[in-house]
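Comment thread on ticket #2218

A.B. wrote:
> Attaching the input chain for the structure job we discussed in standup.
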Amino acid sequence: MNLRDTLQALCVVIIWGVNFAAIKVTVGEIPPLTLTIIRFGITAILLLPFFRLSFVQLKQVVPVALVLGVGHFGLFFVGFRGADAATVALLLQLGVPFSCILAAIFFKDTLGPKRIAGLAMAFVGAAFLAGEPQGGTIISIVSVVACAFCWAWANILIKKLKGIPPLAIMGWMSLFAMPVLGIMSWFWEENQIQAVQEASIVAWMLLSYTVIGSSIFAYHLWYRLIDRLDVNQVVPFTLIAPVIGVGAGVVLLGESFTIYKLLGGLMTITGVAIIQFRQMRRHKA
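C.D. wrote:
> Ran it. Output below, let me know if you need it in another format.
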């Protein structure tokens, strides 16, 4: 990779890492499902005018909207409500081992001893993180783990989509997920309108960062790098995002850096790294 591509990849993972702290602050003022609806509404408004899909393509996006939009992003924001940003950033990495397991089930991918070792290490690390007394509530921890699984499941669904640009998927997925999230918010959240009306300018600025910076700009850069370069050159940069997420939580939000985060984080990221690098070697071969 040349210097320009390296800087762009670093820019993406820094945006994603800091986004954990941004979301944590925002869900402190606006209920998580309501916040997800607002995020998707803004995303749809910004993206849909540029992408038109056929009826067949729209039907293909609907399952992605349910799994990725509702399952992943909805639970992702719910998890932030009762867990610190550092814990969420680390637990979210379970999406990689979940993807590995689903690939073995649906695509008959042989795991092998090294990737099995990586899976075991990642899940043991996650158990350390879940065991931290102040890391998060049981509901939040389960929500983040479930959202990581939904991310892996969504990858299987997106893999089957042909000829639909990533930003088009993001825009239409956002639109289709909003009604379901709205029903969920109606039953499970309270005082949503009041919370939105009373949200501070800081919360709206951070939400803008999440939508424009993380969801649109960063993903646009990322998919351009994926399209232009070998995947093996780009994917390892994703391991930097949770480290930045932990740092953002500790430095910007004053979260404690405990032995649980240290050991659990190291084991989880190491396990994910083993899986990723092993998969890259297999694909290269």
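A.B. wrote:
> Thanks. Noting for the ticket: The CA atoms of residues 13 and 238 lie 6 Å apart.
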